[in-house]
Each structure stands twice: as structure tokens, then as C-alpha cells.
Write a structure and sequence with these properties.
This protein has 2 helices and 6 strands. It is an alpha/beta fold and 130 residues long. A 3-stranded mixed beta sheet has the order 1-2-3, with no helix packed on it. Strand 4, helix 2 and strand 5 form a beta-alpha-beta unit. The longest helix is centred in the N-terminal third of the chain and has 15 residues. It is elongated.
């Protein structure tokens, strides 16, 4: 019985633990107008970048492979199935990931993508900085 109660307590904690920016990992970003032949330089080891405009409105994501055809990033952008609001519960975030079969979903705050507020100094320089 004690094992079950302990497990249940962990699940309930997900419902009250908020998603905070400092707990997130942040893929690099590119702009919709960026050249698809230059943008792969902004894609880190994840193999994809988040597409945002100058006001940090989320447009979607692009993969390194998807950019090989050239053109503008906007022509190769895929929309996210869902977004998660900053400070919503971990339960909400995990539920959205499971429901959509996603490995990762972006976090937004008031409809704007939440960028890394403390970028790593050794991270590759993206084509566009948020």
C-alpha cells in the first residue's frame, strides 16, 4: 500500500508543479524570412530549429533535412500540434505531449515563444537571435 501511495503522491505533484523557464531546454531559432540554405547553420544537435518572427510569435519548426530543398524558411515550416503555456502544470505539459505523440512541444507566454533567457556561452550562434 505504501508504494501505491508514494506513486500517487508523485502523480498528484505533477498537477501542482508549474513549468518554469529555467527548467526548459531551448532549441535555436530562425526567422521565417531566413534563407533555407543558410538556416541549417542555426540548427543544433537536435536537428531542428524553432521558427519565430521578430516579435517572438511562434510559426512552427524546421528540420535540417527539410531545408535542403532551399527557398525561404517559411516554405519549409511545420506547425506544432500543440503549445504549452508557461507556468501551466507539468501534468498539462506531459498530457499534451502524450496526446499528440510529440517528443517535444514549445512553451509560450501570452502567445509568444519563450526563448532561453540565459543562453549558454558555448552554444552555436543561430542565424537569428530572439
Amino acid at each position: 500500500m505504501a508504494d501505491f501511495v508514494g506513486s500517487d503522491r508523485g502523480l498528484r505533484r505533477l498537477a501542482v508543479t508549474p513549468i518554469e523557464n529555467e527548467d526548459l531546454t531551448h532549441p535555436l531559432t530562425v526567422r521565417p524570412d531566413d534563407d533555407a540554405m543558410v538556416a541549417p547553420a542555426a540548427i543544433g544537435p537536435e536537428g531542428f530549429a524553432v521558427v519565430v518572427d521578430g516579435q517572438m510569435h511562434l510559426h512552427g519548426w524546421v528540420s535540417r533535412r527539410g531545408l535542403e530543398a532551399g527557398g525561404a524558411v517559411r516554405d519549409r515550416t511545420h506547425r506544432f500540434a500543440e503549445v504549452v503555456e508557461l507556468r501551466s502544470s507539468l501534468k498539462r505539459g506531459f498530457s499534451a505531449i502524450v496526446q499528440h505523440g510529440a517528443g517535444w512541444l514549445p512553451v509560450v507566454e501570452k502567445e509568444r515563444y519563450v526563448p532561453d533567457r540565459d543562453p549558454q556561452p558555448d552554444a552555436p550562434e543561430p542565424v537569428s537571435r530572439p
